[in-house]
Amino acid sequence: MVEYIKRSNGINNSTSSNNLVDVTQTVAGIIDDISNNGDHALIKYAKKFDNFTGTSFRMSDSDIAKCVDSLQEQTLKDIKFAQDQIRNFAEIQMKSISDTEVETFPGVVLGHKNIPIDSVGCYVPGGRYPMVASAHMSIITARVAGCRRVIASTPPQDGLDPHPATIAAMHFAGVDEIYLIGGVQAIAGMALGTKEIKKVDMIVGPGNSYVAEAKRQLYGRVGIDLLAGPTEVLIIADDTADGEMVATDLLGQAEHGPTSPAILITTSQRVISETVLEIEKQLKILETAEIAGEAWSNYGEIILCSDNDEMLSHANDIASEHVQVFADDLGWWLENLSNYGALFLGKETNVAYGDKVIGTNHTLPTNKSARFTGGLWVGKFIKTCTYQRCTEEASKIIGSYGSRLCEIEKFFGHKKQCDLRVKRYSNR
Question: Are strands 382-390 and 223-224 parallel, antiparallel or unpaired?
Answer without folding.
Answer: unpaired
